[in-house]
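Section 5.1 Outputs to date
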Amino acid sequence: MTSKTVVEHRSQPLSAQNIRANTLNAPDRTALSGARRIVVKVGSSSLTSIRGGISEEALTGLADALAHKRNAGTEIILVSSGAIAAGLAPLGLEKRPRDLATQQAAASVGQGLLMARYTHAFGAHGVTVSQVLLTADDLMRRSQHTNAFRALNRLLNLGVIPVVNENDTVATHEIRFGDNDRLAALVAHLVRADALLLLSDVDSLYDGPPSHGAKRIAHVSGPHDLDGVSIGSTGKAGVGTGGMATKVEAASMAAGSGIHALVTSTPNAAAALAGEDVGTWFSVNGARKPIRLLWLAHLASVQGTLVLDDGAVKAVRDRRTSLLPAGIAAVKGDFEAGDAVEMVSIDNTVIARGLVNYSAAELPQMLGRSTQELGKALGRGYDREVVHVDDLVLV
């Protein structure tokens, strides 16, 4: 994702008259209205405030819209922020804490309060909800993400709406998703959802400040549609972590891996689920990818850099092959086997990211040598790729 931005705009839901007037120019949104399985993400700023805690009105309105869709036969997974924000008032905190320990304490208090409200609100419609807390490891390690998929899939088969959140109480800085927008995109990919709906206090993307006559961006068919547009940051409520930039990134991540996405405001949830022309629609522009590669491209913490010679650049980028020691000109950083590294050309252009099979201490003796030579000189285990093609993604 580049540093370009999209200006955010807060407003009331579009009127029925405006919705009908704009529908003629809208892209085909039946992928959302007719979806079999949808992941919905709602932000902290839509549900909570620092002084008031959880907004009963906002949470009930969201539950009404999602329960109606669930009772009509659509499988719903709700990725909900708000645990930390919900825990601030009971702990007497006046603003979102910066340190991880206090964030974890607030999440521990707030998660139970949030789930109690969801249980009550969905229960009024005869819908059962469950709590699912995830860390990045749960989606990145094959055995764990298989278990996560199995659990979520079974809950959906039983008619339950899983309420997913990052496990803030135990997650460390190193294994955090960073925000629930990207978590939602990964969950949508994990459960093979048909669509992703990202809700906040922002009704759409705009091509500039709305106060200066900017126009709503109704449809994004690919990254080129956002060229030259500028992006807003975290909302004024002071309880969220993402802002519009992460919503655009998450929607683009989903669309680039085979899942349609819509960005709009929480009051527009029912209209969005009905396929009406609200928010900004991100059309699919890529095929589904292994979830490990999706994480590697967008979320992995890069621990080092491998500088590739011209031959290796062509092999990795053009022929899509594994990276061998013979093609590495230099090693930078301090990393262990299994860490994420960037692969760059001699002029420092980033080519790819991958999971490295050797540590930074092991690699210098291997540079420029063939795997056959290394196997004979250093023994078995040194005759394999530095980065296997299955653990590599072009960027």
